[in-house]
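TEACHING EXERCISE
Course module: macromolecular assemblies
Task: Read the component lines below, then compare them to the predicted structure of the full complex.
Student: A.B.
Group: 4
Components provided:
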Amino acid sequence: MRRHLARVAGHATLLIAAAVSLAPLTLVVLNAFKPHAAIVQDPLSLPTALALNNFRAAWAGGDFSIGLINSVLLTGTTVLVTVGFAAPAAFPLARRRIAYWKLISIYFLCSVTVPIQLFLFPLYFVYARLGLVGNVFATACIIAAINLPLSILLLRTYVVAIPIELDDSALMDGASPWQIFRYVIAPLMRPGMVTVAVVVALNAWNEFLITSTFQQGSSGFTMTLGYRAMTSVMGADRGIMMAGACIIVVPVVVFFLLLQRLFLEGMTAGAVKG
Amino acid sequence: MSLAGTQSSWRYAPFVLPALLLSAAVVLVPAVLTLLIAFTDWDGVSAPSWNGLDNFRDLLSDFTFWRSLFNNVKWSVIFLTLPMALSLAVASLLRTRRRSYAVYQVIFLLPYVLSPIANASIWSNMIFDQISGVVGFMRAHGLPLRDPLGHVGSALYAVAAADMWHFWGYLTVVYFAAMRQVPADQLEAAYLEGAGPWQIFRHVTLPNIAPTVALMLVLVTIFSFLTFDYVYLMTGGGPARATELLSTLAYGLAFRTFEVGKAAAVALCMSLFGLIAACAYVWTSRESLRA
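Instructor-supplied answer key:
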């Protein structure tokens, strides 16, 4: 009897936790289809019609056509730079084949924990002088540098899992370090690179502090910045705001649901010890 | 002994160089500059002038600085307790769900993958707002509630609630992944010995996942001192600086009042607290450095 009660309580706890996680998102979807007046009257009511005018207003108001292009460029560049730089670096660090590998590893470990504010201010004023503020590619390099250490640490574990005998036999056949990486290591660590790419893409898409500081001026806005700028213009209309929230949230949710295995792997890989 | 593993070599330097150069250009060099700027008076445009320890002296006598620091400590305490306990409990419950755990995992992680801008807007507009939010709905039905973001006593907790809603699923998923690696025979043995769920958790599960819990405690402490997004987006540090954190204080000093020297000094203080936690982080990752 007590066991049974405990089971029911456990079930209930999980259901409540799931409801709490989903409730705010449900409110977004419900209210995205309602006019402002109906929201004020009752934010919990169901929409009476599947009206799309909120979405049309939000798309125009948030400048999402420009935002989409900037977000894609920013995310794509960040992923390319991060994976392109992290994968080769992970190889000699994992194999301990480079002088000072320990020092370099400690440097990257430390830079995981560095506050962005520690380097943000000089970097901003240097970028401003070089005319790089508002340049998506220059901003992507900053986000890539921030994602670099964790990506290297994660990819390192994938290299460690590759038997070192494979390197050795390639070496005996006269392969250069680059050839070992290119033909032996890289193909075998490809799953790791995909996982890192997915997690970094998410980070870049959602990034706020760097993006809002360096992508100033509406022509440089990403989708999320466009949504934020919308607040000052049409923030008073909650229906349009929630439609805007839908527009920036739904692609991420779809992406997450499709690639959930990779997300889970990438997010827990570095965290589970033992 | 591996042939290739015996000698470390400069031939491998080109593999690491691009990553090191990018990190140096974006993080290391500007961080050193911040260290220097902290001892200057600089508005970001004209030439900086040395002013010794003035910035630090100003901060130590500034009530806002101490308030921000105290808010950071409060934030750490909140995040080290509530989400920790909740996620450990929920992760243990997930272990009893043979099939549905996968669905729960995805649901719990959903807020974590959404952008802070969207999450902050959802919580400000649809939950806390006293006209269009759930709070407003309860007000209309006679409950004496106010927008918790607008009041000095509740604002920090309200922002923390939104941030925890977004963050706790991550902890749950990490703990659950760690718990799945607990050897099944140990759990079975404890069960056959007649141990209850709490005893199994306390004496079998917890010792097994202790390294993961330790790492999460360290990471949560670090990130409590770095946290920025939700506070900046939901209250901007207000009302009356009630939610000001070191990160938002530094940001405001640099970009609102252009006291970049002082902002750098605040950033250094943040880093100092971060550094203590960072040492613990490097220490928990030490096995990856063992020769």
